Amino acid sequence: MNNSVTDCIFCKIVKKEIPSNLVYENENCIAFNDIKPASPTHILVIPKKHYKNLWEVEDKDVLGDLLLTAKEVAKKAGLQDGFRTVINTGDNGGQTVYHIHVHVLGGRFHKWPPG
Ligand code: AMP
Ligand code: ZN
Q1: Closest CA to 45 of 16, 19, 17, 65
Q2: The whole model's pTM is what?
Q3: Region 5-32 average pLDDT
Q4: How far is CA 44 from the centre of its chain?
Q5: Spelled out in words, what is the top-level CATH class assigned to the domain 5-106?
Q6: 103 an active-site residue?
Q7: 78 C-alpha to center of ligand 2: Å?
Q8: Closest-lying ligand 1 atom to the alpha carbon of residue 9
Q9: Which ligand 1 atom is the nearest neighbour of the CA of 13?
C-alpha cells in the first residue's frame, strides 16, 4: 500500500526517510515532537495515510483515530492538567505542512482566543 505523497515531509517521516523524535505509534497514526515547539510539550499527531487537511477527510474512522490518538499521546505525556489540541486548515488557518496533523500542546496555560 502506498498512500504517500513523494514530496510531503510528513509522509517522509512516516516512511522514516527523514528523522523525527517519535513519541507514539499505533496502526494508523504516528506522533512526534514538533521541531519548533510552541509549548513545553508540543507533539504532532498524524495519520500514516496522506490527507492534505481537514477538507480532504470524509472518513469518520480517520478523524476518530486522530483525536483518540491525540488523547492517548496527551495521557502518555502526563498532560492531566489539560492541553490544547489544534488543527490548522488552509492558508487562513495558518497551515504550513499540507498533511493533516493535530497539534497537542501542553505544559503551560494556553490563552483563548489564540492569535
Ligand atoms: P501547521 O502550521 O499547523 O501546518 O504546523 C506544522 C508544524 O510542523 C509546525 O509547528 C512546524 O514546526 C512542524 N514541523 C515542520 N517540519 C517538521 C519536522 N521535520 N519535524 C517536526 N515538526 C515539523
Ligand atoms: Zn503526507
Answers
A1: 65
A2: 0.97
A3: 97
A4: 3
A5: alpha beta
A6: no
A7: 28
A8: 19
A9: 19
